[in-house]
Write a structure and sequence with these properties.
This protein is mainly alpha-helical. It has helices spanning 5-17, 27-41, 48-57, 72-83, 88-100, 116-127, 131-144, 162-167, 172-178, 190-214.
């Protein structure tokens, strides 16, 4: 239990909404992002309520599980917050963060929304996509989608469009090169950069071991 009844209600709502979610995008993912966001916030000048709510609600309806509908998450979050009588400016800010923070939106060069709060939540979410947990989540989702672990005949697409990224059915290992290894240099905050560097090095070591085993070298 937190000291804020709104946060407690939000946690209960998210747990209920995500009770049947895929393992990489479940309540525990949200909880880790929430904790990462609180940690990063300690060294950033941000509105802690906006950060907390956006972190907790950021994956309330991930578009990849809703036929690519990028509006459903912000709408569900806004509807919940409206019922809690949250200030309209806070609702708008949280909704904009959820709408714009995803990695796939980095393909949109004309994206204009940004805020320090979004940078914190974005870093927190991206940290959970790398390192040991990031590797586990990556393969969990690949298994969920019945994707190959690796296919040496299918090279990573390093110049894909947003549409290609969303439609990709490439082997799971390719996702490391198409997203996960790129995140370290996309961090917004110093705390995010510091943690990401450590997790990035862990992934590099994992990939060296993976290919050594794949090629029968050790």
């Amino acid at each position: 239990m937190s000291k804020n009844p709104l946060i407690d209600k939000t946690i209960a709502f998210v747990k209920a909404e995500l009770k049947d979610a895929e393992g990489g995008h479940d309540w525990f993912h949200t909880e880790r992002v929430y904790k990462n966001a609180l940690l990063i916030s300690k060294t950033e000048n941000v509105d802690p309520l906006v950060v907390a709510l956006a972190a907790l609600l950021h994956d309330i309806a991930d578009p990849k599980f809703y036929d690519g509908d990028e509006t459903i998450g912000p709408r569900k979050a806004s509807a919940f917050l409206l019922k809690q009588n949250v200030d309209s400016q806070v609702i708008e800010h949280v909704s904009k963060i959820i709408e714009n923070m995803s990695f796939k939106n980095s393909f949109d060069l004309n994206t204009t929304f940004n805020s320090k709060e979004m940078e914190v939540v974005q870093d927190a979410d991206r940290l959970d996509a790398i390192g040991a947990i990031g590797i586990a989540r990556c393969f969990n989702y690949g298994g969920f989608k019945n994707r190959a672990l690796y296919d040496p005949n299918i090279s990573p697409n390093l110049n894909m469009t947003k549409a290609e990224y969303k439609a990709s059915k490439a082997p799971t290992i390719n996702h490391f090169y198409e997203k996960l290894l790129l995140l370290k240099d996309k961090m917004n905050t110093k705390t995010g950069q510091r943690i990401a560097t450590s997790r990035h090095h862990y992934m590099e070591g994992y990939l060296r071991q993976f290919f050594a085993e794949w090629n029968g070298e050790q």
